[in-house]
Design a protein that fits this description.
Length: 318
């Protein structure tokens, strides 16, 4: 006989999260997202008197209606349904339930929005601003290295801040990156990125000598910081980038770490790079995810024609 289901919803969630961490090697951020969604759902279910072992499809649908009434976006509601569906699939496989009550619920779907696009001129303004952004010379060297590296490689921000120094030692032409789900890929370094990294490593090596002389541990992270992980956090980088955007004369709302990832892909595509190559560099499992950049480029080119073509007219032709 299968084991009985856990008595508490917290045990359902923790057991499920442990399983996806072990079996699917889910990224830490993915586990946290699942956890937040499921805590909210389980809290709602408990308030309505529903037990996870017996609640039905109607209860899940009622929760989604509740989320809609709360003003949550389609994307958030779709993600929450996905989290619920995954947990109940796990419960079914474990024998805790005889069915998956969320299996046949279509959900709201995700809105198809094109990513924000930064022009090459705007990215250059950001890179230029990075060279003078920061309270100290060390801050400016670090900020320059991070920005050049991010734009040269299209890394996710988590991949960027968690890079070890060993990944860029020895003046490599390419670096090994560990991405989502522990998957590894190689990404090339541009000449400006290599120059910025070399200058930053000189600073790190000088700091390392001082730390060794004082009998203190030497950090292994490429961008060390006083955090639990030993490196700059995603939040710290996000705050720095917003400040940098303002210094560059750009609207901070338009500039995020992912915007630079989009710029990396779109600019490569505009200069003739193959879509499959971009897929590999970005670490996308499915080329369909990468194809959105063709739509971004099409929209951008259309805008250029409408606003800059000599035959463009604001009014009707004579």
């Amino acid at each position: 006989m299968p084991p009985p289901p856990p008595a508490l919803s917290d045990q359902w969630i923790s057991t499920f999260l442990d399983a996806i961490a072990a079996e699917s090697d889910a990224a830490r951020n993915t586990q946290l997202a699942y956890g937040r969604d499921l805590v909210d759902f389980c809290g709602w279910a408990a308030g309505k008197g529903h037990a996870l072992a017996t609640l039905d499809r109607a209860a899940v649908e009622a929760y989604l209606i509740f989320c809609d009434a709360q003003g949550l976006s389609k994307a958030t509601r779709a993600r929450r349904l996905s989290s619920i569906r995954q947990m109940f699939r796990f419960a079914f496989e474990e024998g805790w339930r005889a069915d998956n009550p969320a299996l046949r619920i279509a959900g709201p779907g995700k809105p198809h929005r094109l990513p924000q696009l930064l022009s090459e001129t705007e990215v250059e303004a950001l890179l230029t601003a990075a060279r003078s952004h920061g309270r100290t010379a060390d801050d400016r060297l670090r900020n320059t290295a991070m920005m050049e590296l991010l734009y040269a490689t299209g890394l996710r921000v988590t991949e960027l801040v968690s890079l070890p120094q060993a990944a860029v030692r020895g003046d490599p032409r390419m670096i090994l990156v560990k991405g989502k789900g522990g998957k590894e890929r190689m990404v090339p370094l541009s000449a400006p990125a290599k120059t910025a990294l070399a200058a930053w490593l000189v600073r790190l090596d000088a700091d390392a000598e001082s730390l060794r002389a004082a009998g203190k541990p030497v950090p292994k992270a490429l961008f060390p910081a006083k955090s639990a992980a030993g490196h700059l956090t995603r939040q710290q980088f996000f705050v720095m980038l917003k400040s940098l955007a303002a210094q560059a004369g750009l609207d901070p709302a338009r500039v995020t770490p992912h915007t630079l990832r989009h710029a990396f892909a779109t600019h490569l595509l505009a200069h003739g790079a193959d879509l499959m190559v971009i897929q590999t560099l970005l670490g996308h499992a499915d080329v369909a995810t990468t194809e959105i950049y063709t739509h971004v480029l099409d929209a951008h080119l259309k805008d250029l024609v409408l606003t800059h073509h000599p035959l463009a007219r604001k009014g009707p032709l004579p």
